[in-house]
Amino acid sequence: MIKIAVLGYGTVGSGVVKVLNTNAKLIAKRAGQEVEVKYILDLRDFPGDPAQSKVVHDYNIIAEDPEISIVVETMGGTKPAYEFVKKALQSGKSVCTSNKELVAAYGAELVHIAKSKNANFLFEASVGGGIPIIRPLNQSLTADRIEQINGILNGTTNYILTKMEKDGSDFAGVLKEAQQLGYAEKDPTADVEGYDACRKIAILTSLAYGQQVDYEDIYTEGITKITAEDFQYAKALHASIKILGSSKRIGGKLYAMVAPQMIREDNPLYSVKGVFNAICVTGNMLGDVMFYGRGAGKEATASAVVSDVVDAVKHMNVNVMTIWEDEKLEVAPMDEMKNRFFVRIGIGEKAKAKEVFTEGEEVDGGVEGEFGFLTGEMTEKAFREAIAGFDSFITRIRVGF
Predict the structure, then answer these.
(1) For 187, 291, 304, 368, which has the most beta carbons within 10 A of its beta carbon?
(2) Residue from 100, 92, 144 nearest 123 by CA
(3) Strands of the sheet with 2-7, listed across from one edge
């Protein structure tokens, strides 16, 4: 029997305990032996909860217990999670985590510590909730050179944009509704400003290329400026608006960003609606593959964590190789990235726009007093300099077609 400890008894942690209890026989069969939760670390007590007898408040009880072979970390954040996880790995215990902040900030270091101790640091649930993507990148796609990753990596923002598109609603109203339904946090900043998706694309890119990609280096733009009028123009273009986490290598340089983009029906991410997430990976031999499913939620995320637990049990005292070097992979300056742009300006500067953006294509979104158009492909710097000369500039959205 393998005994484990769960750090944090919140949404995901309690989900992990539920999955382990509900599917105990199946998990034992697939892992090769029974898995039992011996400790649950939390600051709180849970009177009436069947798990209360396992609750401890001192991490050292777990760290110093030789019976604990695997630690499941679902606390979130980096403090004290980093300290606890590092200590567990250094003592030879494997760690399974859903903590994207921890993985994005310290993934390379923790992978190396695990390797040195013949233990494992596994983090399938840190990106995409229940969607299997980390293991495929590590194992299934190893024959390919990854050329590009595009993903809808946050269920909250995808829900909001889907609702805005369907109902013609404004951002503030849909956000409030999402909060009431539990799809958005009371403080939704990490989601709506793109920070959550940024950490996830940093993790995926680090794994795809085997080097550390710092999320702080990735250009990040949220959805707070997207309006109902933007969707009118998107409809005229037979397109949808999604916030995508993207990374690609061109000519030896890595480009990465998180930002809203207009995409059309031929893009596999076009039909991903509501709280669902999807990640499209392009390999030089395989072409496009897409991973789709619920990107968040108690059971979905907990299921991914427990899949890592099973993997850790099957590879007890054997490190599952993950290539993630400490050496930093630089992200090319955003100014150099080439994109097409959809632009809205006042109707009075229509003629000027046609002169400045000679490859422009007019878009009739039915919005009075405005001129909407698509640019040709150009660098971010060239676009920024060109649009600076327009007094009536309203907004721009990058175009993924």
Answers:
(1) 304
(2) 100
(3) 55-56, 35-41, 2-7, 68-73, 94-97, 121-122
What whole-number distance in Å separates Cα of residue 144 and Cα of residue 209? 11
Residue ranges of the alpha helices (H) in 263-392?
Answer: 298-314, 350-356, 380-387
* Inter-residue contact 303 to 19 (CB < 8 Å): yes
CA distances to 175, 187, 281, 297 from 182, rounded to whole Å, are 10, 12, 30, 10
Q: Which residues of the chain are under the pLDDT cut of 70?
A: none
The single residue listed with the structure tokens 């039992």 is 36
Query: Can you give the pLDDT at residue 297?
Result: 79
Q: Helix, strand, coil % (nearest 5) of the chain?
A: 40, 25, 35
Q: Which two tokens stand for residue 168?
A: 């013609």
Give the residue from 171, 281, 272 showing the smallest Cα distance to 226. Answer: 171
In our burial notation (b when 16+ CB lie closer than 10 A, e otherwise), range 6-26 reads bbbbebbbbbbbbbbeeeeee
Question: Around Cβ 286, how many Cβ atoms within 10 Å?
Answer: 14
- pTM across the whole model: 0.95
pLDDT tens for residues 205-251?
Answer: 999 999 999 999 999 999 999 999 999 999 999 999 999 999 999 98
Cα–Cα distances in angstroms (integers) from residue 190 to residues 223, 282, 291, 308, in the given order: 11, 27, 23, 26
**Residue type at 277 in one-letter notation:** N
Q: Please give the C-alpha separations between residue 234 and each of 348, 380, 396, 399, in angstroms, as whole numbers.
A: 22, 21, 12, 10
Q: What is the pLDDT of residue 142?
A: 86
Contact of 184 with 175, CB cutoff 8 Å: yes
> Which residues does the annotation mark as catalytic?
200
Q: Which residue has the tokens 């158009």?
A: 373
Nearest to 307 by CA among 42, 61, 72, 137: 72
Pairing of strands 395-399, 2-7: unpaired
C-alpha dihedral sign at 131, 23, 39, 316:
negative
Residue 66's contacts (CB-CB under 8 Å, 6 or more residues apart) are none
Residues 177-215, buried b or exposed e (16+ Cβ, 10 A)?
bbeeeebbeeebebbbbbbbbbbbbbbbbbbbbebbbeb
